[in-house]
Design a protein that fits this description.
Strand content: 25-35%
CATH architecture of the largest domain: 3-Layer(aba) Sandwich
Number of helices: 3
Helix content: 10-25%
Structural class: alpha+beta
Radius of gyration: 16 Å
Strand order of the largest sheet: 1-2-3-4-5-7-6
Length: 188
């Protein structure tokens, strides 16, 4: 069983449990203006949705969930979509997110998946992509130039790159004008 180096906490397959103590309002580096991630029932529904279509694992510290990750099985299970990755604010930058990603990769590999993919939104202008008025004529040449602009407020694309993921595509106006969704993937 995997453990977190700083917390000594195990990974557990997630199941719906009314005693689970976590909230999606603590979603890693992202806000959701279109949904109530903070409500307990909203969090339980997100877990339900992931479990219906894939796998989920949580990290615990004592009796408290400090992070969870979901993997949706797509393309007949040959690809898993990492969605979502959530780490409690007090537990961030402690290796939990990276450990959850590695655990999901191991589970996907064991299930016969060849690739993990994900989408990471830029709804608040933290990448160079949001600074361009019309991305469509510049694709695909611009993909290799994606970078965070503010080291004090990094974008999840930096984290996923550090885990070995590469940018494989962009949907320029996925979340509104100049608010792209950045697609990333990694071969297992």
């Amino acid at each position: 069983m995997n453990t977190f180096p700083s917390l000594g906490s195990p990974f557990f397959p997630m199941e719906l449990d009314p005693t689970i103590n976590f909230s999606l309002k603590d979603r890693s580096s992202e806000s959701r203006p279109d949904g109530d991630w903070g409500a307990f029932e909203g969090a339980r529904q997100e877990v339900r949705d992931v479990l219906e279509e894939g796998s989920a694992f949580c990290a615990v510290d004592g009796d408290r969930v400090v992070g969870w990750i979901g993997g949706l099985h797509v393309y007949h299970g040959k690809v898993w979509e990492l969605h979502p990755l959530v780490v409690a604010p007090a537990a961030r930058r402690s290796g939990i997110g990276r450990a959850l990603v590695a655990h999901l990769e191991d589970a996907a590999r064991a299930a016969g998946a060849a690739t993990i993919m994900l989408g990471t939104d830029d709804e608040d202008g933290r990448t160079t992509l949001s600074q361009i008025d019309d991305l469509y004529p510049l694709l695909p040449g611009i993909l290799c130039e994606i970078a965070s602009l503010d080291p004090a407020n990094p974008h999840p694309v930096d984290f996923y790159r550090s885990c070995g993921y590469a940018v494989v595509g962009v949907l320029p106006d996925a979340n509104g004008v100049r608010k792209p969704d950045i697609y990333m993937a990694k071969r297992l």
